[in-house]
Amino acid sequence: MQPDTSFRKETFLLGPFELPRLFNGLWQLSSNSWGSAPAAKIRRQMATYAENGYTAFDMADHYGSAEILYGEFRQKWPHPEEIFGATKYCVFRKIEPTRGRIEAAVNERLERMKLERVDLLQFHWQDYDDPGYLTAMNHLQDLQREGKISLLGLCNFDSIHMDEICAELGPGSIVSNQVQFSLIDIRPLSRMAEVCRKHNVKLLTYGTVCGGFLSDRWLGREEPDMYSGSLTPSQRKYLDMIVKAWGSWSLFQSLLSVLRSIADKYEGMSIANIATRWVLDHSFVGAVIIGARMGVSEHTDDNRKVYGFRLSVDDRAAIQEVLAQSNGPQLIRTIGDCGAEYR
Q: Which of 76, 158, 174, 211 meets the CB 3.0–4.6 Å disulfide criterion with 235?
């Protein structure tokens, strides 16, 4: 079966922006554990991604030099208005969320990214027991009205608190929430999907290929040693989830086999393509964020294959047959709702 390749770029609307459904994730610039490259090479690869239609970049205040490198790249791009930058303001410790403190954080984003206005500012608050997140969000909304922010989103907020914030700030105030979503972590299907539909919020999802485990590379392979030193930080995290929370390595191999058989139906497809398409086929998902090892490796040709086709009813049924044998539906009780593992 040959997928339709006549339309290579799928898009969705986020506020006034028409954006690709694959974002470049820059979290791997936060640590040399994923490999490193000179700044000039990283900027060149950002340009390569943009030339191939990957014009949306996701970063954060704590992703090392990601914001700075993005700002330098965007400033030199011939049509900077084509490039979309989503960053974050993350509060990991107790603070007094004064207007001055919140504005200083936004101004720092603007300075580092060389912008007059942040396209999408995603907010994370570590401690729900401290209701200061509502005060902070109101300050951010004020700054949005003043023109320093185009769109407001959330990052790793659970369903209850996302619902609360959306109600507090009013209709259309929050456009996105960035959470983990994959064939292994199906928690967004439980409560988050309903809240997204209620408030017209789109999910920007990460962890969709589980640090590369949902790929052909791991089909037929023995379970790796968690502490061998050959795994990236992401892979250690997702391996732990696969074998301790979701199921077993044996069941995971069954899932990979099913994904490979589905991929064989669509010429040139990979296991990662099928896993990504499964996530994109959910209406409440805006985009999948693909971790980009800028200047180290790139997968633009493989990633774009997810555009132009949909999984069939039979495809989804075959996948569901494996998922039904896993602990996936119970993760929301054993781990908690979306983002709970970061608190």
A: 211
What are 154-192's pLDDT values in tens digits? Answer: 999 999 999 999 999 999 999 999 999 999 999 999 999
Tens digits of per-residue pLDDT, 234-254?
A: 899 999 999 999 999 999 999
The candidate with the shortest Cα–Cα distance to 235, out of 26, 49, 82, 33, is: 33
Residue with tokens 């040399």: 32
172: three-class secondary structure by DSSP: coil
pTM for the model: 0.93
Q: How many CB atoms lie within 10 A of CB 80?
A: 13
The rounded distance, in Å, linking the Cα atoms of 260 and 318 is 11
Amino acid letter, 198: K
Q: Which two tokens stand for residue 252?
A: 């995971």
Please choose, from the candidates 278, 273, 268, 269, the residue with its C-alpha nearest in 3D space to the C-alpha of residue 322: 278
H helix or E strand, kind and range, residue 20: strand 17-20
Among 163, 171, 167, 151, CA closest to 196: 163
